[in-house]
Amino acid sequence: MLEKIREGSQGPVAKIILGAVILSFALAGIGGYLGQTTEQPVAEVNGVKISQTEFSRAFQNERARLEQQFGEYFAQITADPNYMAQIRQGVIDRLVQQELQTQLATELGLRVSDDSVRKAILELPYFQIGGKFNNDRYLQVIRQMNFQPDAFREYLRAEMTRSQLISAVAGTDFALESELASAIALQQQTRSIDYVVVSKESLQEGIAVTEQEIADYYDLNMSQFLAPEQVSVSYIDLNAANLTLETHVSEADVKAYYDQNSAQYVEPEKRRVSHILIDNSEDDDAAKAKAEDLLAQLQQGSDFAALAESSSDDIVSAEIGGDLDWIERDMMDPAFEDAAFALANKGDFSDVVQSEFGYHIIQLTDIQSQQVKAYDTVKADLRAELERTEKVNAFYEKQTEMGAIAFEISDTLIDAADVAGVEVQTTELVDRNSLPAPLNTPAVLAAIFSPDVLEDKMNSEVIEVGDEHVVLVRVKEHVPAATKALADVSEQIKARLVSEKASELAKEKATTLFAEIEAGKSLTDLATEHSLDLRQEAALTRQAYTVSPAIVQHAFKMAHPTDMPVVEKVELNNGDAAIVALKTVTNATVEGEIDAQIKQNITMAQVNKNYMVFIEALKANAELNLPAQTTAAE
């Protein structure tokens, strides 16, 4: 099994899964990792307790992920206690699965090498700036997560070890050619059927519904007949991007702006440096002494790259001779930068330099001198910038005047609109979730339905809906949510009751007809006798869309016929009923090379199925103690 795991963890599927695990780890964040544990665990797995602290961290990470995914709608989602209960339980389930995997990985003796950890750190996007690994960014992030470099490496090693086990399950799974051919043949299998549909519409004539039945249905289902709250809104939409400048920006204006701000068009000097870092978080004196010793070795002629590789605590840059790539001013720790930019020649190295990360020795490996961008290369951008500045200035002037007028004259938007130089716009009477942009934001909705605006009919305050983009709103008309009167929905209820009764009649008729089939009558004779439309599908596929999905699904579950067709009754999703006769089953013939995409789809489906079986097997063989579902960190 260990050999399979080692081989599997090198495959492409395994690498994809490993990358996904590491990326999700980076995106989720692990702040508060060193928090205090609580007495009451959320679960216990083979005697190992999963603490409230672990649960809280994972739960908050999941909330953050969902908030990023759903944006402004996240508040509505969290308002549903049942949904949040499912989220909490899902987090607990994942923590239990992770602990089971960790325990099995330990039992199997799995381990991730230092080189693999270094590579993972280099590839994590949260440690990169401009698509390249940045050492300062790396150190800052892990410090924010309360990690020292050694502790972070071990945490990541544990994560990767667990993912190695997962990738082994997926990466070593495969489907034989015969299994692929069999699966494709099954997917492409066709079936020949005859069927008749007993339509509920054909039975609706003559169905009576009493006024009492309508009233009873209304009383029992009043929540289904709510008229939503509606509102009609007048508003001013002021957007800097839509403003028209009174005067155009001239060529002279652009050139003058360039001359006045020439320093902005200078590409600053860049330096490429390498460093040796000695971490001082545990013993400052020992770290400083080690750095001084390394400096002495360099002064005596030792190779900088070799010392960095063997001695630097920055394990990522160490393996490439301490190289940190190109740096500019204001990218690194101030002390580090001052020392790096004080070096005069390529190959020079600094004395020992202390920063917040420890002690450095810095070597200058290359220099890119300061360069000035020519006017012709930037004048188009400068013109756009000047026009943008003019619009922004005009925007803020109009916004200030518009807000003041709307406050002083709070019973109309006309005066405020005149000051802003825009038109007052008005919506139709719509429900609150159907307001058009830019009114369909949480801030604007909150203002519209606030007491001052909704009940007192006052103008709202200026509401920001984007960069240099604001609105002012007032309610023109408001219709509160209310249950529709019985008279307004009586016909709707009647139609619904007639449909329900007709559906029951259709099912009853189908049952009666099916009894005749069981008594020996053929489906063809039955259709003729009862004036039903006998429909035929000579080669029905699983993906057929011209036949009711319920009939398709049922047809492919029916037993293979032998001498006689297999006949069964089916209830359709729309309330109709059908009788289906399966006559023949034709398996597809798979010839030639199997398409790569089809092969991958079938293999991944098998991988997912086997992984879930693997998880369930771990649970079945474990001692699990799952206390009552927690509500912590909600």
From TrEMBL:
<keyword id="KW-0812">Transmembrane</keyword>
<dbReference type="InterPro" id="IPR052029">
    <property type="entry name" value="PpiD_chaperone"/>
</dbReference>
<dbReference type="InterPro" id="IPR046357">
    <property type="entry name" value="PPIase_dom_sf"/>
</dbReference>
<dbReference type="Pfam" id="PF13624">
    <property type="entry name" value="SurA_N_3"/>
</dbReference>
<keyword id="KW-0413">Isomerase</keyword>
<feature type="transmembrane region" description="Helical">
    <location>
        <begin position="12"/>
        <end position="34"/>
    </location>
</feature>
<protein>
    <recommendedName>
        <fullName>Periplasmic chaperone PpiD</fullName>
    </recommendedName>
</protein>
<dbReference type="GO" id="GO:0005886">
    <property type="term" value="C:plasma membrane"/>
</dbReference>
<feature type="domain" description="PpiC">
    <location>
        <begin position="268"/>
        <end position="366"/>
    </location>
</feature>
<dbReference type="InterPro" id="IPR000297">
    <property type="entry name" value="PPIase_PpiC"/>
</dbReference>
<keyword id="KW-1133">Transmembrane helix</keyword>
<comment type="similarity">
    <text>Belongs to the PpiD chaperone family.</text>
</comment>
<dbReference type="GO" id="GO:0003755">
    <property type="term" value="F:peptidyl-prolyl cis-trans isomerase activity"/>
</dbReference>
<keyword id="KW-0143">Chaperone</keyword>
<keyword id="KW-1003">Cell membrane</keyword>
<dbReference type="InterPro" id="IPR027304">
    <property type="entry name" value="Trigger_fact/SurA_dom_sf"/>
</dbReference>
<dbReference type="Pfam" id="PF13616">
    <property type="entry name" value="Rotamase_3"/>
</dbReference>
<keyword id="KW-0697">Rotamase</keyword>
<keyword id="KW-0472">Membrane</keyword>
<keyword id="KW-0997">Cell inner membrane</keyword>
